[in-house]
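In the laboratory, one determines a bound structure by crystallizing the protein with its ligand and collecting diffraction data. In a computational setting the workflow is compressed into a single prediction: the sequence and the ligand go in, and a structural description comes out. We illustrate the idea with D-gluconic acid.
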Amino acid sequence: MPKITAARTIVTCPGRNFVTLKIETSDGVHGVGDATLNGRELSVKSYLDDHVIPCLIGRDAHQVEDIWQYLYKGAYWRRGPVTMSAIAAVDMALWDIKGKIAGLPVYQLLGGASRAGVMVYGHANGETIEDTVAAARDYQAAGYKAVRLQTGVPGFKGTYGVSKDKLFYEPADADLPTETTWASEPYMRVVPELFAGAREALGWEIHLLHDVHHRLKPIEAGRLGKDLEPYRPFWMEDPTPAENQDAFRLIRQHTTTPLAVGEIFNSIWDCKGLIENQLVDYIRATVTHAGGITHLRRIAGLADLYGVRTGCHGATDLSPVSMAAALHFDLSVPNFGVQEYMRHTAETDAVFPHAYSFEGGLLHPGEAPGLGVDIDEAAAAEFPYRRAYLPVARLQDGTMHDW
Ligand code: GCO
Ligand code: MG
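The predicted complex, in structure-token form:
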């Protein structure tokens, strides 16, 4: 059996922070897992270094399921983003090892390819509707079949989703949280105009998505969904915070715009009510923050029973290791919907050499054994950790709002 002989975490900041777990085995094979939790990177590193790695040494690396159960049930303190990101990193690394030993890409171990490739959506951002539509046109020209549209709200600086750089959107931009100002009313007026402009310029053959980023009250979300209906959006994401899941009933009563939720979910228990009550159409839980490939498959299995499809989070704060793991999952899972794809910087791609590739709007994980991604530790060492926070949002009178 391939025994786990060593494991360690590597923190690197090639433009943004990433935490990577590397597990080595007695077979001479190693595996990698992504443990990045945006703005709380060092908490997950400590969880792994201080509490998980000591328990891994000497275990059979092939026992992916048993080690998952051991870390989940054995901690007593279940769930939460730190715990589940740490478990996810172990899970990814073990699937990587299993694939390398088998000589097969991980998607083959998950049942094989269910489709030719993974449809992805890119991010079209702009300060104005014209800028956003122009960015979306560039994605269309590059072959994308789906694109997310975010635009500035007139009179407000630093709207969610509007980047300083056109291609690389990186919201964790400061040593301490930046303060932004928000008002829902002008936002709710501008988004339907954006979609009208985009349909006129881009036609109907491309999927258009939008992320509300938890900003609206349920009744406001119902209104926005209804106003977007004529433009047939692929989805409206995170319309309202999902702590109160009954809120989604209210949204559903008002709109047939498909709903996507779950990028901050950590386990199947966060998803259960929304899926079983058919209150969402796409579940956005991701490999890194929801317990790894092993747990995400369980979530997808439940979702499939209710006609809910997957739409994994794929922001730049998930490393190429997470992206590779997501692509093996996406390629194999029957109820795949779409995969978010924000391109990493060239520095990040150099630190994490990978086999996945983009063609004609689809990503493919490639045929390399395992996950097909690695960390170049010498390159990683050139980019030391830099504390970085996501912004916060306040209403115009100073009230804290959901960012
Ligand atoms: C998305 C997300 C991201 C998050 C980021 C926070 O849909 O891609 O909303 O942009 O804000 O991942 O860490
Ligand atoms: Mg989002």
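The pocket of magnesium ion (ligand 2) is lined by residues 211, 213, 237-238, 263 (CB under 6 Å). Keep in mind that any predicted model is a hypothesis to be tested, not a measurement.
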